[in-house]
Amino acid sequence: MWVKNPASECVLNPQNGKTIVYVVNVGDRDIQVGSHFHLADVNESLLFFTGMDDATAAEAALTDPQRTRTQQIAAARALAYDRSKTPGKAPWGYRLDVAPGDSMRFSPENSPSDAIEVVPIGGKRRVPGLRKDKQNDHVDLS
Fold it and tell me: How many CB atoms lie within 10 A of CB 82?
């Protein structure tokens, strides 16, 4: 980005619509998410929570020795926020609040994540099919 006056302050993502999510990775590998990727379309091994209490409960379920790994993951998913189309509720219609081109890596060992700021996807609020197992047309986020 070229800034005519280097002393000026440049706001990349305005405060409008920002929210906080917590992320738990139930997979066995780190997952990296890019700056402009629609969070509802990321790897299914990432679970999103709107409160730290639910994220902590999910992590407790994932370490419960009385359950099989499949049961642990099912219990954690039951606590996670639904990714279905719910305008105004993260992760639907949201992306990470990081600089363009940046990304964040979510590790199974560091769950739940710290508070992650997310912002609404701007522009025409349409995202193309981003995964092979999902429809290939544009999805209207509004």
Answer: 12
Total residue length of the chain: 142
Q: DSSP letter for 94, please.
A: E
What is the percentage of the chain residues whose pLDDT exceeds 90? 39
DSSP β-ladder status, 126-127 and 139-140: antiparallel
Of all residues in the chain, what percent carry a pLDDT higher than 70? 75
**78 DSSP assignment:** H
Give 22-72 as a DSSP string: EEEE-SSS-EEEETT--GGGS-TTEEEESSHHHHHHHHHHHT-TTS-HHHH
Give the pLDDT confidence score for residue 82 in this predicted structure.
78
